[in-house]
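Support request from a user on the community tier.

User writes: "When I paste my structure tokens into the form, the page sometimes reloads and wipes my input. The last time it worked, I copied everything first. Here is what I submitted, just in case something in the input itself triggers the reload:"
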């Protein structure tokens, strides 16, 4: 749930019915005692009249008291505090979504003890918010049940719950046993199973379209709670039912891939993706209790598409899911820029590498949602955008040394001071032609190859193309370096670097197409065909002023003169743009990441040792 922010931030507050801000709520919360981990419960008073005014009182306790309580997960909605309740017999205003949730949860004949963030935390007290938000992992992990509020009664959600009840004991890998319609899809030649449209929609409404699934705060809440009860109006469903249906299979779920493998059935990947990744996070949280590690970078990346009213909550709301917060603390006094820069700095220091820059899941370039004022090397953890990267955090490449010097040097203005090795500047950029329909349209493949070879002939001499002059960086024929660049020097399934046998196999196919473009369909037989599709859909071929083939992200607004630079601790080169020089240190902005053929395995460092390249000071701004 997006927590409203304080008056000293740049984000608007919810407005009360009388036009006042959230800080102008009546002073009802007495200060919490320091040093004893005190917090408040909201005791929801009973009423047999559904429409009567909601009344609550506070109880103050500590986690050590072991007093039973429930916790509420819900979607705040627009931060408009328009609904009046009585709290400690005084008027208090909450959001409409919370008000309707409390009406449904109120018992007619007995009190109900619930922890609710908007009520139990004094939102106008920034110091208290800092302290209580940092404790939310403990608050939810000690509750008896997390009440996961999906909203008022919805016929489709109710039907989805009924379908789930009927699937009790069902094996998700055996969809055919339900008797649903099946059909083979042309794009992967596998059989997929589909429920009747009304059931499909019901399951989507339950697990995809309810607004609560978008919110970053509920991730921590549902992941930490010992028991979770999904609630829609008066209908309920135990979360354990979802986990039993998904089964004990360890699907490949990590920070950088889909919750299910690429071979998963359409229903499974379409409907249960969010449930699967939550299931995995709950498992990770339980393992944390016995000493297992949960990296902050993995958690931030895994849930990078979740939303919050306050951008800082895209970090603060997930800290409890990491086994080590790396020194990042909840502090709403700090600006978004300060928080995100601090997080990036801590991630670099903890890993001793620049994965957060060179293989980032958060788009730096062509990201209109990115917050102004962030240094270019700092991810916007609230706006992932559409990032283009090479094998995130995987050690397929090792362009720079394995580690960087830590602690990294960050100036008070957010400049990251590093050392870099320049490989040259961008000189020639290939016109882009989408390869997205490679499997469907031979003319697309034909046009792509004609365009790529035309670009090659425009920028290389006939002797280079024919092999008389080798590619300087590797000594291989230039045409071979050209096609190895197109497939990022890898084969797939599983992804691996090209072996000599692979090079021979791929080379025969590329040569056949080079000699006769009508044989373009042979490209589909490449061991690297999938990578060729992916790279040519998202990347553009370039030639540097030093004669190197490189790939740059399609969406990056690169321009002539942008530098390709290798950093110690970065697995792939960066594209940097010089914005100014001060005191002998070049100031650069990060434009994107790159593949540079012949410099993906530490060759730049070797040439520095041989005196053929130089390492110089760089300031990333």
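"...and here is what came back when it finally went through:"
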């Amino acid at each position: 749930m997006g927590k409203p922010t304080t008056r000293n931030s740049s984000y608007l507050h919810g407005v009360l019915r009388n036009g006042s801000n959230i800080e102008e709520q009546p002073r009802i919360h007495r200060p919490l005692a320091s040093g004893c981990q005190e917090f408040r419960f909201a005791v929801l008073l009973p009423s047999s009249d559904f429409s009567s005014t909601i009344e609550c009182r506070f109880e103050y306790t500590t986690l050590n008291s072991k007093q039973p309580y429930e916790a509420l997960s819900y979607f705040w909605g627009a931060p408009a505090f328009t609904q009046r309740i009585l709290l400690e017999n005084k008027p208090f205003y909450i959001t409409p979504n919370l008000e309707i949730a409390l009406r449904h949860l109120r018992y007619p004949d007995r009190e109900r003890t619930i922890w609710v963030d908007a009520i139990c935390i004094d939102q106008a007290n920034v110091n208290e918010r800092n302290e209580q938000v940092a404790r939310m992992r403990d608050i939810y992990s000690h509750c008896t049940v997390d009440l996961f509020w999906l909203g008022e009664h919805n016929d489709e959600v109710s039907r989805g719950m009924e379908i789930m009840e009927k699937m009790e004991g069902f094996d998700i890998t055996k969809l055919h046993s339900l008797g649903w319609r099946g059909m083979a899809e042309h794009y992967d030649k596998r059989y997929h199973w589909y429920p009747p449209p009304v059931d499909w929609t019901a399951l989507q409404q339950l697990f995809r379209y309810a607004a609560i699934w978008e919110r970053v705060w509920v991730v921590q809440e549902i992941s930490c709670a010992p028991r979770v009860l999904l609630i829609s109006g008066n209908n309920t469903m135990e979360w354990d039912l979802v986990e039993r249906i998904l089964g004990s299979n360890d699907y490949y779920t990590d920070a950088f891939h889909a919750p299910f493998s690429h071979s998963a059935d359409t229903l499974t990947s379409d409907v249960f993706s969010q449930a699967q990744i939550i299931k995995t996070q709950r498992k990770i949280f339980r393992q944390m209790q016995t000493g297992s590690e949960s990296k902050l970078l993995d958690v931030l990346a895994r849930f990078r598409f979740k939303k919050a009213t306050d951008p800082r909550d895209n970090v603060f709301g997930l800290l409890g899911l990491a086994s080590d917060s790396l020194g990042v603390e909840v502090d709403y006094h700090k600006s978004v820029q300060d928080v995100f820069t601090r997080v990036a700095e801590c991630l670099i220091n903890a890993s001793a590498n620049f994965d957060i820059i060179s293989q980032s899941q958060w788009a730096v370039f062509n990201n209109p949602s990115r917050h102004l004022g962030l240094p270019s090397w700092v991810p916007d953890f609230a706006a992932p955008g559409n990032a283009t990267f090479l094998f995130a955090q995987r050690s397929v490449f090792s362009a720079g040394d394995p580690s960087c010097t830590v602690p990294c040097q960050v100036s008070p203005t957010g400049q990251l001071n590093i050392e870099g090795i320049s490989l040259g500047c961008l000189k020639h950029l290939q016109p882009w032609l989408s390869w997205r329909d490679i499997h469907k349209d031979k003319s697309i493949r034909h046009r792509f190859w004609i365009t790529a070879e035309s670009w090659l002939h425009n920028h290389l001499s006939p002797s280079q193309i024919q092999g008389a002059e080798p590619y300087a960086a590797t000594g291989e024929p230039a045409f071979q370096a050209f096609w190895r660049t197109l497939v990022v020097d890898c084969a797939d399934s599983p992804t691996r670097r090209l072996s000599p046998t692979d090079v021979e196999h791929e080379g025969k196919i590329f040569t056949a197409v080079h000699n006769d473009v009508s044989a373009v369909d042979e490209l589909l037989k490449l061991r690297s065909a999938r990578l060729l599709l992916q790279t040519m859909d998202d990347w553009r071929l370039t030639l540097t002023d030093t004669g190197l083939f490189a790939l740059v992200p399609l969406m990056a607004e690169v321009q002539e003169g942008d530098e390709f630079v290798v950093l110690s601790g970065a697995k792939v080169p960066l594209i940097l743009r010089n914005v100014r020089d001060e005191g002998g240190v070049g100031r650069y902005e990060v434009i994107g990441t790159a593949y540079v053929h012949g410099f993906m395995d530490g060759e730049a460092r070797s040439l520095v040792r041989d005196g053929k390249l130089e390492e110089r000071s760089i300031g990333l701004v």
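Agent notes: The reload is a front-end session timeout and is unrelated to the input. Residues 402 and 569 are 5 Å apart (CA to CA). Confidence is low (pLDDT under 50) at residues 1-20, 435-440. Escalated to web team.
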